[in-house]
Sequence to fold (236 residues):
Amino acid sequence: MSHLILIRHGQSIWNLENRFTGWVDVELSENGRKEAYKAGHLIKELNIDFGKIYTSYLKRANETLDIVLNIINLSNKEIIKAWELNERHYGNLTGLNKDEMKIKLSEQKVHQLRRSWDTPPEKLSKDSPYHPLNNKIYKNIPKYLIPDTESLKDTYERVLPYYKKNILPNLNSNVLISAHGNSIRALCKYLFNLDNDIISKLEIPTGNPLIIELKNDKVKSAEYLDQSRSKDLIIF
Fold:
């Protein structure tokens, strides 16, 4: 029996401003740092060790993880960074305010672009300063792998192979992943065997560790450590 802890980064400055963020590398807000500190103390109370620790390329997930690891006295532990764990790419919605887009496109259309399984926004121009091709943190990723936009299905199709190849073999011990709302939703779709309609309803709160007990890659139990900010996991 082992544990997989998934934590969405604390609130970012663009979460606070209600903007589509995706692959843009924004920092945590002050509240996001507070969420990360609380997450660290909740994980510390479990008194468990971690064999492997993973995060994305994005600083909001990295900073959240750094805060957590400092609190649980694992700041010297090796951290594995994978672009495959990045947030979903929001295409030409990147940087735009979600409420303003509801007025411009309709609430129904924005909901479809945010929550549908396989409908991506329009592509982001490669000339945009928000395009990952224009950010040096992605310089070692083959250009053909860098998306212009993604649906949740697209996100799933990069998260899941990485999980099966790199994370699953290490689940004979406890694993910690600091990632993003949609990369975690993609992983939860697989772990909890959620269909394409149900996954659209799954919300992942910022800075609230989700602890999953696994046996032979099967979920035995799952709960949020901060019950005051827990979301419905739909499955239990």
